Amino acid sequence: MSSSQDPVSAAGSSTDEPVFVVMGKLRKPHGVRGEMVMTVLTEFPELLESGQKVYLGEDFHEQTVRSVRPHRDDLLIAFEGITDRDEVGYYRNTMLFMDEGDFPDLPEDEYYLHDLVGMEVVTDTGQSLGELKEILVTGANDVYLVQKGEEREILIPAIEEVVLEIDFDQGTVLVRPLPGLLDGS
């Protein structure tokens, strides 16, 4: 199996609720026509296009993308019905999400990283390490943040020698921890 990089899901826990995936962070207004500078936090910025429904902030306020275009290492994004710099400024420093249901289907042996969140992480000796809570996307390799109840967090490097199998049917990630990784737990 191979993964397609994307940010980790942000909300929605039951199968009846939508799962929202972080796409970027709105930083500041740009110009006078309602555009905002957005830091891209996804490997799939092309999913943000005119007409796309997006969700802003912790309350997931629904907006429709009016336009999106590159701007240096960021994007300039505008929303339908907002054409004023001051009005769009309300969303300064707000996270922008998409509904997971709006993501395209992947080939059979591929998955999005956010699909792993909530899976149980188990060692090759059968020890449950807890639930995969978050995926930290680093430059070298991803890191799985795993937590069991109120116990301490464990950081698992997502490398071939450690992550042995991902079983979506069982909802488990099988790992072989590096020596010393679980010491003191």
Characterize the structure shown:
The protein is an all-beta fold and 185 residues long. It folds into two domains: 2-106, RimM (Elongation Factor Tu (Ef-tu), domain 3); 118-175, PRC-barrel domain (SH3 type barrels, Roll), CATH 2.30.30.240. Helix content is 2%, strand content 46%. The chain has one helix at 85-88; strands at residues 2-4, 9-11, 20-30, 35-40, 53-56, 61-71, 74-79, 94-99, 110-112, 120-123, 128-136, 143-147, 153-157, 163-167, 172-175. The strands form three sheets. Strands 3-4-7-6-5-8 form a six-stranded antiparallel β-barrel. The protein has a six-stranded mixed β-sheet with strand order 13-12-11-10-15-14, with no helix packed on it. Strand 14 (163-167) and strand 15 form a beta hairpin. The longest helix has 4 residues, at 85-88. It is elongated and about 60 Å long. The model is unreliable at 1-14 (pLDDT under 50).
